[in-house]
Design brief:
With 485 residues, the protein is mainly alpha-helical. The chain is 84% helix and 0% strand.
Amino acid sequence: MAERNISSGNIIINLIWKFMERISVQAINLIIQILLARKLFPEDFAAVAIITVFINIATIFVQSGFGTALIQKAEIDELDSSSIFYFSISASFILYIILFFVAPYVADFYHQDILKNLLRAEAIILVFGAFNTVQQAILARNLEFKKNFKASLLGCIASGITGVGLAYAGAGIWALAISTIVNNFVLTVVLWFSVRWRPKLIFSLKRVKTLFSFSWKLVCSSLVSVIYTNVRTLIIGKAFKSDTLGYYNRGDMLGSSLMNGLTGAINAVMLPVLSTKQDKIDEMKKMLRRTMSLNCFVIFPVMFGLVAVSKPLILILFTDKWLNAVPFMQLVCIAYAFYPMHSANLQAINALGRSDVALKLEVIKRVIGLCLIGLSFPFGVYAIVGSEILFSLVATIVNGFPNKYLINYSIKEQWRDIIPYLILAVIMSILVYSLSLILNIPNILLLIIQIIIGIMIYIVGCHILKLDAYTYMLNKIKSVLSSRK
Protein backbone atom coordinates (compact mmCIF):
# COMPACT_ATOMS: atom_id res chain seq x y z
CA MET A 1 0.00 0.00 0.00
CA ALA A 2 1.07 3.63 -0.44
CA GLU A 3 3.31 5.16 2.19
CA ARG A 4 2.03 7.84 4.48
CA ASN A 5 1.92 11.34 3.01
CA ILE A 6 2.85 13.38 6.09
CA SER A 7 4.71 16.70 6.01
CA SER A 8 4.40 19.95 7.94
CA GLY A 9 2.59 21.60 5.03
CA ASN A 10 0.32 18.62 4.61
CA ILE A 11 -0.53 18.68 8.31
CA ILE A 12 -1.72 22.30 8.15
CA ILE A 13 -3.73 21.76 4.96
CA ASN A 14 -5.46 18.67 6.29
CA LEU A 15 -6.06 20.24 9.67
CA ILE A 16 -7.99 22.92 7.79
CA TRP A 17 -9.96 20.27 5.90
CA LYS A 18 -10.70 18.42 9.13
CA PHE A 19 -11.88 21.63 10.74
CA MET A 20 -14.09 22.28 7.73
CA GLU A 21 -15.53 18.78 7.96
CA ARG A 22 -16.18 18.92 11.68
CA ILE A 23 -17.50 22.45 11.82
CA SER A 24 -19.64 22.29 8.66
CA VAL A 25 -21.11 18.89 9.49
CA GLN A 26 -21.76 19.84 13.10
CA ALA A 27 -23.28 23.15 12.01
CA ILE A 28 -25.59 21.50 9.48
CA ASN A 29 -26.50 18.77 11.95
CA LEU A 30 -27.21 21.39 14.59
CA ILE A 31 -29.58 23.22 12.26
CA ILE A 32 -31.30 19.94 11.43
CA GLN A 33 -31.66 19.02 15.10
CA ILE A 34 -33.09 22.45 15.87
CA LEU A 35 -35.71 22.08 13.13
CA LEU A 36 -36.56 18.58 14.34
CA ALA A 37 -36.77 19.70 17.98
CA ARG A 38 -39.22 22.45 17.05
CA LYS A 39 -41.47 19.87 15.37
CA LEU A 40 -41.03 16.77 17.55
CA PHE A 41 -41.36 16.20 21.30
CA PRO A 42 -38.97 15.37 24.18
CA GLU A 43 -40.33 11.81 24.34
CA ASP A 44 -39.28 11.20 20.71
CA PHE A 45 -35.68 12.20 21.37
CA ALA A 46 -35.68 10.14 24.57
CA ALA A 47 -36.61 6.96 22.68
CA VAL A 48 -33.92 7.49 20.04
CA ALA A 49 -31.36 8.27 22.75
CA ILE A 50 -32.03 4.88 24.37
CA ILE A 51 -31.57 2.79 21.21
CA THR A 52 -28.49 4.81 20.26
CA VAL A 53 -26.79 3.52 23.41
CA PHE A 54 -27.18 -0.10 22.30
CA ILE A 55 -26.03 0.66 18.76
CA ASN A 56 -22.97 2.53 20.02
CA ILE A 57 -21.99 -0.44 22.17
CA ALA A 58 -22.43 -2.85 19.25
CA THR A 59 -20.36 -0.56 17.00
CA ILE A 60 -17.36 -1.01 19.28
CA PHE A 61 -17.42 -4.77 18.75
CA VAL A 62 -17.92 -4.39 15.00
CA GLN A 63 -14.94 -2.10 14.53
CA SER A 64 -12.95 -3.75 17.35
CA GLY A 65 -10.44 -0.89 17.40
CA PHE A 66 -9.03 -2.09 14.08
CA GLY A 67 -9.32 1.34 12.48
CA THR A 68 -7.03 2.83 15.11
CA ALA A 69 -4.74 -0.20 14.89
CA LEU A 70 -4.36 0.31 11.12
CA ILE A 71 -3.59 3.99 11.66
CA GLN A 72 -1.07 3.35 14.41
CA LYS A 73 0.78 0.48 12.71
CA ALA A 74 3.93 1.72 10.96
CA GLU A 75 3.39 -0.35 7.78
CA ILE A 76 0.26 -2.12 6.55
CA ASP A 77 -0.32 -4.24 3.45
CA GLU A 78 -3.23 -5.68 1.48
CA LEU A 79 -3.48 -8.72 3.71
CA ASP A 80 -3.92 -6.52 6.78
CA SER A 81 -6.59 -4.37 5.16
CA SER A 82 -8.57 -7.17 3.50
CA SER A 83 -8.53 -9.31 6.62
CA ILE A 84 -9.88 -6.47 8.75
CA PHE A 85 -12.52 -5.65 6.14
CA TYR A 86 -13.97 -9.16 6.06
CA PHE A 87 -13.75 -9.55 9.82
CA SER A 88 -15.65 -6.27 10.37
CA ILE A 89 -18.37 -7.22 7.88
CA SER A 90 -18.87 -10.61 9.54
CA ALA A 91 -18.99 -9.05 12.99
CA SER A 92 -21.56 -6.48 11.86
CA PHE A 93 -24.01 -9.13 10.65
CA ILE A 94 -23.62 -11.14 13.85
CA LEU A 95 -24.20 -8.06 16.01
CA TYR A 96 -27.20 -7.03 13.92
CA ILE A 97 -28.82 -10.43 14.49
CA ILE A 98 -28.16 -10.17 18.22
CA LEU A 99 -29.74 -6.71 18.41
CA PHE A 100 -32.69 -7.90 16.33
CA PHE A 101 -33.57 -10.50 18.96
CA VAL A 102 -32.67 -8.29 21.93
CA ALA A 103 -34.94 -5.45 20.74
CA PRO A 104 -38.21 -6.77 22.30
CA TYR A 105 -36.55 -7.05 25.71
CA VAL A 106 -35.28 -3.47 25.49
CA ALA A 107 -38.81 -2.30 24.65
CA ASP A 108 -40.27 -4.23 27.60
CA PHE A 109 -37.66 -2.92 30.04
CA TYR A 110 -38.40 0.72 29.18
CA HIS A 111 -42.13 0.11 28.65
CA GLN A 112 -41.97 1.63 25.16
CA ASP A 113 -43.17 -0.70 22.38
CA ILE A 114 -41.79 1.58 19.67
CA LEU A 115 -38.22 0.76 20.75
CA LYS A 116 -38.46 -2.75 19.28
CA ASN A 117 -38.91 -1.70 15.67
CA LEU A 118 -36.71 1.38 16.05
CA LEU A 119 -33.76 -0.66 17.26
CA ARG A 120 -34.23 -3.31 14.58
CA ALA A 121 -34.34 -0.68 11.84
CA GLU A 122 -31.52 1.59 12.98
CA ALA A 123 -29.14 -1.27 13.79
CA ILE A 124 -28.51 -1.66 10.04
CA ILE A 125 -25.98 1.17 10.36
CA LEU A 126 -23.63 -1.38 11.94
CA VAL A 127 -23.19 -2.94 8.50
CA PHE A 128 -22.56 0.44 6.88
CA GLY A 129 -19.92 1.24 9.49
CA ALA A 130 -18.15 -2.05 8.87
CA PHE A 131 -17.89 -1.29 5.16
CA ASN A 132 -15.96 1.94 5.69
CA THR A 133 -13.64 0.97 8.57
CA VAL A 134 -10.63 0.40 6.31
CA GLN A 135 -11.40 3.39 4.07
CA GLN A 136 -11.51 5.69 7.10
CA ALA A 137 -8.19 4.30 8.34
CA ILE A 138 -6.51 4.78 4.95
CA LEU A 139 -7.67 8.39 4.73
CA ALA A 140 -6.47 9.08 8.27
CA ARG A 141 -3.07 7.45 7.67
CA ASN A 142 -2.47 9.66 4.64
CA LEU A 143 -4.18 12.75 6.13
CA GLU A 144 -6.61 12.84 3.19
CA PHE A 145 -9.32 14.59 5.15
CA LYS A 146 -10.67 16.44 2.12
CA LYS A 147 -12.33 13.21 0.96
CA ASN A 148 -13.72 12.62 4.42
CA PHE A 149 -15.07 16.16 4.43
CA LYS A 150 -17.00 15.60 1.20
CA ALA A 151 -18.43 12.27 2.37
CA SER A 152 -19.50 13.60 5.77
CA LEU A 153 -21.01 16.73 4.25
CA LEU A 154 -23.05 14.82 1.66
CA GLY A 155 -24.23 12.35 4.29
CA CYS A 156 -25.28 15.13 6.61
CA ILE A 157 -27.14 17.05 3.90
CA ALA A 158 -28.98 13.94 2.70
CA SER A 159 -29.82 13.04 6.28
CA GLY A 160 -31.10 16.54 7.00
CA ILE A 161 -33.34 16.74 3.96
CA THR A 162 -34.77 13.31 4.75
CA GLY A 163 -35.26 13.89 8.47
CA VAL A 164 -36.78 17.35 8.27
CA GLY A 165 -38.98 16.35 5.34
CA LEU A 166 -40.33 13.31 7.18
CA ALA A 167 -40.82 15.25 10.42
CA TYR A 168 -42.89 17.93 8.74
CA ALA A 169 -44.78 15.24 6.82
CA GLY A 170 -45.91 13.76 10.13
CA ALA A 171 -43.56 10.76 10.41
CA GLY A 172 -42.82 11.59 14.05
CA ILE A 173 -40.09 9.60 15.73
CA TRP A 174 -39.28 7.71 12.52
CA ALA A 175 -37.93 10.94 11.04
CA LEU A 176 -35.04 10.71 13.52
CA ALA A 177 -34.34 7.03 12.89
CA ILE A 178 -34.51 7.15 9.09
CA SER A 179 -32.35 10.27 8.90
CA THR A 180 -29.62 8.46 10.86
CA ILE A 181 -29.77 5.49 8.49
CA VAL A 182 -29.58 7.75 5.43
CA ASN A 183 -26.58 9.61 6.87
CA ASN A 184 -24.58 6.44 7.42
CA PHE A 185 -25.58 4.94 4.07
CA VAL A 186 -24.55 8.00 2.05
CA LEU A 187 -21.28 8.33 4.00
CA THR A 188 -20.42 4.70 3.25
CA VAL A 189 -21.24 4.94 -0.46
CA VAL A 190 -19.26 8.15 -0.97
CA LEU A 191 -16.22 6.80 0.88
CA TRP A 192 -16.38 3.57 -1.11
CA PHE A 193 -16.05 5.47 -4.38
CA SER A 194 -13.63 8.10 -3.01
CA VAL A 195 -10.99 5.66 -1.79
CA ARG A 196 -9.38 3.54 -4.49
CA TRP A 197 -8.66 0.63 -2.18
CA ARG A 198 -10.77 -2.50 -2.70
CA PRO A 199 -10.62 -5.69 -0.63
CA LYS A 200 -8.91 -8.65 -2.23
CA LEU A 201 -10.05 -12.24 -1.83
CA ILE A 202 -7.48 -12.90 0.87
CA PHE A 203 -7.83 -13.36 4.61
CA SER A 204 -5.44 -14.09 7.43
CA LEU A 205 -6.68 -14.87 10.90
CA LYS A 206 -3.09 -14.48 12.06
CA ARG A 207 -3.04 -10.85 10.85
CA VAL A 208 -6.36 -10.19 12.57
CA LYS A 209 -4.96 -11.61 15.80
CA THR A 210 -1.80 -9.51 15.43
CA LEU A 211 -3.77 -6.30 15.02
CA PHE A 212 -6.18 -7.39 17.73
CA SER A 213 -3.26 -7.75 20.15
CA PHE A 214 -3.12 -3.95 19.99
CA SER A 215 -6.78 -3.18 19.43
CA TRP A 216 -8.36 -5.41 22.10
CA LYS A 217 -7.23 -2.95 24.72
CA LEU A 218 -8.85 -0.15 22.72
CA VAL A 219 -12.03 -2.23 22.47
CA CYS A 220 -12.16 -2.68 26.23
CA SER A 221 -11.28 0.96 26.76
CA SER A 222 -13.95 2.15 24.30
CA LEU A 223 -16.52 -0.26 25.73
CA VAL A 224 -15.99 0.97 29.26
CA SER A 225 -16.05 4.57 28.02
CA VAL A 226 -19.24 4.21 25.95
CA ILE A 227 -21.11 2.33 28.67
CA TYR A 228 -20.11 4.93 31.22
CA THR A 229 -20.88 7.86 28.90
CA ASN A 230 -24.36 6.49 28.25
CA VAL A 231 -25.17 5.13 31.69
CA ARG A 232 -26.82 8.45 32.58
CA THR A 233 -29.07 8.08 29.54
CA LEU A 234 -30.08 4.57 30.61
CA ILE A 235 -30.65 5.58 34.24
CA ILE A 236 -32.56 8.77 33.45
CA GLY A 237 -34.64 6.94 30.83
CA LYS A 238 -35.62 4.26 33.35
CA ALA A 239 -35.86 6.14 36.67
CA PHE A 240 -37.42 9.41 35.55
CA LYS A 241 -40.13 10.60 33.18
CA SER A 242 -39.38 9.99 29.50
CA ASP A 243 -39.54 13.71 28.73
CA THR A 244 -36.78 14.30 31.31
CA LEU A 245 -34.42 12.21 29.20
CA GLY A 246 -35.49 14.26 26.18
CA TYR A 247 -34.59 17.49 27.96
CA TYR A 248 -31.24 16.07 29.01
CA ASN A 249 -30.57 14.82 25.48
CA ARG A 250 -31.26 18.21 23.88
CA GLY A 251 -29.39 20.08 26.60
CA ASP A 252 -26.40 17.87 25.95
CA MET A 253 -26.65 18.24 22.17
CA LEU A 254 -25.44 21.82 21.81
CA GLY A 255 -22.44 21.38 24.09
CA SER A 256 -21.40 18.02 22.69
CA SER A 257 -21.79 19.16 19.07
CA LEU A 258 -19.51 22.13 19.54
CA MET A 259 -17.01 20.25 21.69
CA ASN A 260 -16.78 17.31 19.27
CA GLY A 261 -16.61 19.58 16.25
CA LEU A 262 -13.80 21.74 17.56
CA THR A 263 -11.62 19.24 19.44
CA GLY A 264 -12.37 16.33 17.11
CA ALA A 265 -10.78 18.11 14.17
CA ILE A 266 -7.48 18.61 15.95
CA ASN A 267 -7.43 15.18 17.57
CA ALA A 268 -8.25 13.33 14.33
CA VAL A 269 -5.23 14.91 12.67
CA MET A 270 -2.92 14.63 15.67
CA LEU A 271 -3.13 10.82 16.14
CA PRO A 272 -1.45 9.95 12.82
CA VAL A 273 0.93 12.89 13.20
CA LEU A 274 1.92 12.02 16.76
CA SER A 275 2.38 8.40 15.67
CA THR A 276 5.22 9.54 13.40
CA LYS A 277 6.96 11.12 16.42
CA GLN A 278 7.02 7.96 18.54
CA ASP A 279 10.82 8.04 18.82
CA LYS A 280 11.09 11.82 19.28
CA ILE A 281 9.77 12.47 22.78
CA ASP A 282 10.71 16.16 22.88
CA GLU A 283 8.87 16.84 19.63
CA MET A 284 5.85 14.88 20.81
CA LYS A 285 5.72 16.85 24.06
CA LYS A 286 5.94 20.13 22.17
CA MET A 287 3.18 19.07 19.80
CA LEU A 288 0.95 17.87 22.65
CA ARG A 289 1.38 21.15 24.52
CA ARG A 290 0.42 23.07 21.41
CA THR A 291 -2.61 20.84 20.79
CA MET A 292 -3.85 21.13 24.36
CA SER A 293 -3.38 24.90 24.50
CA LEU A 294 -5.16 25.46 21.18
CA ASN A 295 -8.04 23.20 22.22
CA CYS A 296 -8.49 24.98 25.55
CA PHE A 297 -8.09 28.41 23.95
CA VAL A 298 -11.15 27.63 21.81
CA ILE A 299 -13.23 25.28 23.98
CA PHE A 300 -13.13 27.13 27.31
CA PRO A 301 -14.79 30.34 26.05
CA VAL A 302 -17.28 28.39 23.92
CA MET A 303 -18.41 26.10 26.75
CA PHE A 304 -18.52 28.74 29.48
CA GLY A 305 -20.11 31.10 27.00
CA LEU A 306 -22.89 28.57 26.42
CA VAL A 307 -23.43 28.36 30.17
CA ALA A 308 -24.00 32.12 30.23
CA VAL A 309 -26.36 32.33 27.24
CA SER A 310 -28.17 29.00 27.63
CA LYS A 311 -31.63 30.35 28.49
CA PRO A 312 -32.12 32.82 25.61
CA LEU A 313 -30.42 30.37 23.25
CA ILE A 314 -32.78 27.50 24.14
CA LEU A 315 -35.84 29.73 23.91
CA ILE A 316 -34.84 31.07 20.50
CA LEU A 317 -33.74 27.79 18.94
CA PHE A 318 -36.14 25.25 20.44
CA THR A 319 -39.07 27.39 21.75
CA ASP A 320 -40.31 27.49 25.33
CA LYS A 321 -41.41 23.83 25.34
CA TRP A 322 -37.71 22.99 25.81
CA LEU A 323 -37.06 25.47 28.64
CA ASN A 324 -36.40 22.60 31.08
CA ALA A 325 -33.30 21.71 29.02
CA VAL A 326 -31.49 24.87 30.23
CA PRO A 327 -30.03 23.52 33.53
CA PHE A 328 -28.93 20.32 31.78
CA MET A 329 -27.15 22.35 29.12
CA GLN A 330 -25.36 24.46 31.72
CA LEU A 331 -24.12 21.44 33.67
CA VAL A 332 -22.86 19.43 30.69
CA CYS A 333 -21.12 22.44 29.13
CA ILE A 334 -19.02 22.93 32.27
CA ALA A 335 -18.09 19.25 32.15
CA TYR A 336 -17.28 19.34 28.42
CA ALA A 337 -14.96 22.31 28.92
CA PHE A 338 -12.27 20.01 30.31
CA TYR A 339 -12.53 17.29 27.65
CA PRO A 340 -9.67 18.72 25.53
CA MET A 341 -7.27 17.83 28.34
CA HIS A 342 -8.56 14.23 28.54
CA SER A 343 -8.52 13.63 24.81
CA ALA A 344 -5.17 15.26 24.04
CA ASN A 345 -3.42 13.14 26.67
CA LEU A 346 -5.05 9.97 25.37
CA GLN A 347 -4.05 10.81 21.80
CA ALA A 348 -0.41 10.96 22.87
CA ILE A 349 -0.67 7.68 24.79
CA ASN A 350 -2.30 5.88 21.84
CA ALA A 351 0.23 7.38 19.41
CA LEU A 352 2.99 5.79 21.49
CA GLY A 353 1.26 2.44 21.04
CA ARG A 354 0.47 2.22 24.76
CA SER A 355 -3.11 1.05 24.44
CA ASP A 356 -2.54 -0.97 27.62
CA VAL A 357 -2.09 2.28 29.54
CA ALA A 358 -5.19 3.77 27.87
CA LEU A 359 -7.25 0.76 28.99
CA LYS A 360 -6.09 1.04 32.59
CA LEU A 361 -6.93 4.73 32.61
CA GLU A 362 -10.43 4.11 31.27
CA VAL A 363 -11.13 1.46 33.90
CA ILE A 364 -9.88 3.72 36.72
CA LYS A 365 -11.87 6.72 35.47
CA ARG A 366 -15.10 4.83 34.92
CA VAL A 367 -14.98 3.17 38.33
CA ILE A 368 -14.64 6.64 39.83
CA GLY A 369 -17.40 7.94 37.56
CA LEU A 370 -19.83 5.15 38.43
CA CYS A 371 -19.20 5.77 42.13
CA LEU A 372 -20.03 9.44 41.60
CA ILE A 373 -23.25 8.54 39.76
CA GLY A 374 -24.23 6.13 42.53
CA LEU A 375 -23.58 8.74 45.21
CA SER A 376 -25.49 11.42 43.30
CA PHE A 377 -28.53 9.28 42.38
CA PRO A 378 -30.48 9.84 45.64
CA PHE A 379 -30.28 13.59 45.10
CA GLY A 380 -32.12 13.62 41.78
CA VAL A 381 -31.53 14.04 38.07
CA TYR A 382 -29.60 17.32 38.28
CA ALA A 383 -27.15 15.80 40.75
CA ILE A 384 -26.65 12.81 38.42
CA VAL A 385 -25.85 15.08 35.48
CA GLY A 386 -23.82 17.44 37.64
CA SER A 387 -21.58 14.60 38.83
CA GLU A 388 -20.08 14.68 35.33
CA ILE A 389 -18.34 17.96 36.22
CA LEU A 390 -16.46 16.41 39.13
CA PHE A 391 -15.67 13.36 37.00
CA SER A 392 -14.33 15.57 34.21
CA LEU A 393 -11.94 17.30 36.60
CA VAL A 394 -10.75 13.98 38.03
CA ALA A 395 -10.23 12.65 34.49
CA THR A 396 -7.80 15.45 33.64
CA ILE A 397 -5.56 14.18 36.44
CA VAL A 398 -5.96 10.47 35.64
CA ASN A 399 -5.30 10.88 31.90
CA GLY A 400 -2.47 13.33 32.42
CA PHE A 401 -0.53 11.33 35.00
CA PRO A 402 1.16 8.75 32.66
CA ASN A 403 2.49 11.45 30.33
CA LYS A 404 4.78 12.70 33.06
CA TYR A 405 6.74 9.48 32.58
CA LEU A 406 6.04 8.80 28.90
CA ILE A 407 6.89 12.24 27.47
CA ASN A 408 7.93 14.26 30.54
CA TYR A 409 4.77 16.41 30.52
CA SER A 410 3.47 16.56 34.09
CA ILE A 411 -0.03 17.42 35.29
CA LYS A 412 1.37 20.53 36.95
CA GLU A 413 2.80 21.69 33.62
CA GLN A 414 -0.46 20.93 31.84
CA TRP A 415 -2.56 22.97 34.24
CA ARG A 416 -0.01 25.78 34.16
CA ASP A 417 -0.41 25.85 30.37
CA ILE A 418 -4.21 26.00 30.36
CA ILE A 419 -5.18 27.82 33.59
CA PRO A 420 -5.01 31.35 32.06
CA TYR A 421 -7.59 30.37 29.42
CA LEU A 422 -9.83 28.82 32.09
CA ILE A 423 -9.76 31.84 34.41
CA LEU A 424 -10.38 34.26 31.54
CA ALA A 425 -13.29 32.15 30.21
CA VAL A 426 -14.95 31.93 33.64
CA ILE A 427 -14.67 35.70 34.17
CA MET A 428 -16.12 36.27 30.71
CA SER A 429 -19.00 33.86 31.46
CA ILE A 430 -19.91 35.58 34.73
CA LEU A 431 -19.92 39.02 33.11
CA VAL A 432 -21.97 37.82 30.14
CA TYR A 433 -24.51 36.04 32.37
CA SER A 434 -24.90 39.19 34.47
CA LEU A 435 -26.21 40.98 31.37
CA SER A 436 -29.30 38.72 31.41
CA LEU A 437 -30.02 39.91 34.97
CA ILE A 438 -29.63 43.58 34.09
CA LEU A 439 -31.15 43.88 30.62
CA ASN A 440 -34.89 43.46 30.13
CA ILE A 441 -34.96 43.12 26.34
CA PRO A 442 -36.14 40.52 23.77
CA ASN A 443 -34.20 37.24 23.84
CA ILE A 444 -32.76 37.57 20.35
CA LEU A 445 -31.34 41.02 21.11
CA LEU A 446 -30.04 39.85 24.49
CA LEU A 447 -28.29 36.87 22.89
CA ILE A 448 -26.60 39.02 20.23
CA ILE A 449 -25.35 41.50 22.84
CA GLN A 450 -24.12 38.69 25.11
CA ILE A 451 -22.18 37.02 22.29
CA ILE A 452 -20.55 40.25 21.09
CA ILE A 453 -19.59 41.35 24.62
CA GLY A 454 -18.31 37.85 25.45
CA ILE A 455 -16.05 37.69 22.39
CA MET A 456 -14.71 41.17 23.07
CA ILE A 457 -13.92 40.39 26.72
CA TYR A 458 -12.13 37.15 25.86
CA ILE A 459 -10.10 38.47 22.92
CA VAL A 460 -9.06 41.63 24.74
CA GLY A 461 -8.08 39.54 27.76
CA CYS A 462 -5.97 37.19 25.61
CA HIS A 463 -4.31 40.17 23.95
CA ILE A 464 -3.48 41.92 27.23
CA LEU A 465 -2.12 38.71 28.79
CA LYS A 466 -0.35 37.75 25.54
CA LEU A 467 -1.50 34.14 25.87
CA ASP A 468 0.52 31.66 23.83
CA ALA A 469 -2.30 30.02 21.83
CA TYR A 470 -3.81 33.40 20.97
CA THR A 471 -0.45 34.74 19.78
CA TYR A 472 0.20 31.55 17.80
CA MET A 473 -3.18 31.70 16.04
CA LEU A 474 -2.80 35.42 15.36
CA ASN A 475 0.61 34.89 13.77
CA LYS A 476 -0.71 32.00 11.66
CA ILE A 477 -3.60 34.11 10.40
CA LYS A 478 -1.25 36.99 9.57
CA SER A 479 1.08 34.57 7.77
CA VAL A 480 -1.75 33.15 5.65
CA LEU A 481 -3.06 36.62 4.77
CA SER A 482 0.39 37.95 3.87
CA SER A 483 1.11 34.94 1.63
CA ARG A 484 -1.97 35.78 -0.44
CA LYS A 485 -0.81 39.31 -1.21
